[in-house]
């Protein structure tokens, strides 16, 4: 079910009208296709559209055969992890980050984690990851979730050199990349060195759409697709809606990107003297200095009706207690502008009075 009252850009002029136009235009096609079985993946009509979107936005020439359409970004990650990792070739994740380790555990593949501190710079982080890991696949997000920094062209080239030297694999999660104004990093990277995933529901701010994709390197194949919906296919209704949204991809991407930048500007205005607001991404992450407690700060915000992700969301269960209680991620994309400003004011007050909640 898709609810147009929910999502990153609800209430923004142009977004809901564009979504409704897509819903209206595909309604007749959905009715006409109800008698059909789900779409076989080998014949999936969206693959060429996604390939064209990738080439237009990132400059990567893509054969439709390289595209796999999935039930959302989560399944895209599941299928990719099972395709690049096994018992002898683990995955490498940065910490804190989106909890990729939970997906790896579901897939039954091993993983290792590299703690990071973004203040040192992305080149230092890239060195830290490649120096620590030599036998498996490195998983990155562009931009990083939750810190919002973007890997540079030289950073990505460094990872590609590591892969060429070690025979390792590379996975790039593009969730949030469509909101980055500067995509110069994409023009110099070699897309055939990477397994690349993205979520159309995140890109277009349509919760419930459940459409994602994988762009795999030329010559690489999926492993174990039968464990997922790929063995059955997607319903015609979801496919048809996805096709009609992709026709409007430029408009929707522009609306969402512009709105997210406005939200970041609001966060900079209200919080810049307390923390660094990232240039990219959908989040502001507060690194709690000792002796401040992220969990107690979360509880203080909850008393003011400000809900934030659990500090433990960003780190694995095996992490140290100090790491688990260090970071607080604040979403700047889920509320209307006025409520966002009110919430960030409360966040500011809570941080400023942190001496009372340590």
What would the keywords be for this entry?
alpha/beta; 358 residues; two-stranded antiparallel sheet; 42% helix; 12% strand; single chain
Q: What ranges have pLDDT less than 50 throughout 5 or more consecutive residues? A: 34-38
Compute the number of helices: 13
Please state the average pLDDT score.
82
Based on DSSP secondary structure assignment, what is the total number of beta strands? 9
Structural class call reads alpha/beta
SSE string = HHEHEHEHEHEHEHEHHEHHEH
What gross morphology would you assign?
globular
Strand order of the largest sheet: 1-7-6-5-4-2-3
Let me know the largest β-sheet.
7 strands, mixed
Distance between the termini: 42 Å
User: In what range is the share of β-strand residues?
Assistant: 5-15%
Radius of gyration: 21 Å
Binned, the helix content reads 40-55%
Write the layout of secondary structure elements.
Elements: H1 15-32, H2 46-58, E1 67-70, H3 72-84, E2 91-95, H4 100-107, E3 111-115, H5 122-132, E4 137-141, H6 153-166, E5 169-173, H7 184-188, E6 195-199, H8 200-204, E7 212-215, H9 236-247, H10 249-271, E8 283-287, H11 294-303, H12 321-324, E9 327-331, H13 337-352
Parallel strand pairs: 2-3, 2-4, 4-5, 5-6
Antiparallel strand pairs: 1-7, 6-7, 8-9
Helix pairs in contact: 1-9, 2-9, 3-4, 5-6, 10-13
Describe this structure in words.
The radius of gyration is 21 Å and the shape is globular. Helix 1 crosses helix 9. With 358 residues, it is an alpha/beta fold. The longest helix is centred in the C-terminal third of the chain and has 23 residues. About 1% of the residues have low confidence. The strands form two sheets. The chain has a seven-stranded mixed β-sheet, with helices on both faces. It has a two-stranded antiparallel sheet with strand order 8-9. It has 13 helices and nine strands.
């Amino acid at each position: 079910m898709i609810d147009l009252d929910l999502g990153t850009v609800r209430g923004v002029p142009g977004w809901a009208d564009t979504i409704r136009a897509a819903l209206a235009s595909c309604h007749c096609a959905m009715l006409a296709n109800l008698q059909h079985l789900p779409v076989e993946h080998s014949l999936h009509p969206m693959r060429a559209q996604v390939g064209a979107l990738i080439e237009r936005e990132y400059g990567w020439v893509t054969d439709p055969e390289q595209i796999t359409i999935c039930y959302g970004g989560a399944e895209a990650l599941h299928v990719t992890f099972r395709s690049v990792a096994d018992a002898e070739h683990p995955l490498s994740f940065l910490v804190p980050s989106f909890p990729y380790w939970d997906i790896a555990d579901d897939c039954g593949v091993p993983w290792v984690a590299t703690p990071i501190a973004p203040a040192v710079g992305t080149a230092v982080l890239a060195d830290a990851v490649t120096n620590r890991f030599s036998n498996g696949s490195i998983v990155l997000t562009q931009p990083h979730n939750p810190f919002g920094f973007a890997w540079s062209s030289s950073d990505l080239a460094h990872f590609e050199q590591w892969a060429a030297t070690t025979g390792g694999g590379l996975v790039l999660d593009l969730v949030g990349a469509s909101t980055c104004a500067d995509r110069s990093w994409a023009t110099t990277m070699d897309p055939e060195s990477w397994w690349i995933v993205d979520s159309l529901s995140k890109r277009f701010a349509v919760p419930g759409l459940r459409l994602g994709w994988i762009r795999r390197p030329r010559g690489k194949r999926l492993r174990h697709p039968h464990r997922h919906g790929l063995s059955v296919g997607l319903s015609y209704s979801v496919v048809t809606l996805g096709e009609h949204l992709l026709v409007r991809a430029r408009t929707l991407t522009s609306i969402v990107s512009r709105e997210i930048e406005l939200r970041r500007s609001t966060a900079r205005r209200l919080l810049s003297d307390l923390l660094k607001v990232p240039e990219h991404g959908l989040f502001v992450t507060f690194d709690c200095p000792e002796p401040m407690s992220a969990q107690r700060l979360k509880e203080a915000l909850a008393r003011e009706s400000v809900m934030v992700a659990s500090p433990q969301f960003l780190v694995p269960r095996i992490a140290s207690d100090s790491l688990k209680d260090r970071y607080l991620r604040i979403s700047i994309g889920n509320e209307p502008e006025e409520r966002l400003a009110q919430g960030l004011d409360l966040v500011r007050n809570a941080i400023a009075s942190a001496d009372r909640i340590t």
